[in-house]
Amino acid sequence: MNAEHLQLLLTREMPYGKYKGRLIADLPGNYLNWFARKGFPPGQIGILLALMHELDHNGLSSLLDPLRMKK
Q1: Would you tell me how many other CB atoms lie within 10 Å of the CB of residue 4?
Q2: d(CA 9, CA 68)
């Protein structure tokens, strides 16, 4: 995890699927859990989904709040 990835969670949108167009940071936990069970896609989107899953699963989503306020 690095600072750039955290910032991307708040700017990168889901490019496909049920939640297409929603920010990665705003994806529901059950959707992130589904990816964790089925496998994250390759590339940067998979890295971001896995990171958001870890934050959500461990109750650390509030770590993104200060970055949200900077917008």
Answers
A1: 7
A2: 10
pTM: 0.91
Q: Where are the domains of the chain?
A: 3-69
Residue 10 class from Cβ within 10 Å (0-12 exposed, 13-18 middle, 19+ buried)? middle
Q: What size, in residues, is the chain?
A: 71
pLDDT tens by residue, 31-52? 999 999 999 999 999 999 999 9
CA atoms of 41 and 59, how far apart (whole Å): 23
pLDDT tens digits for 56-67?
999 999 889 888
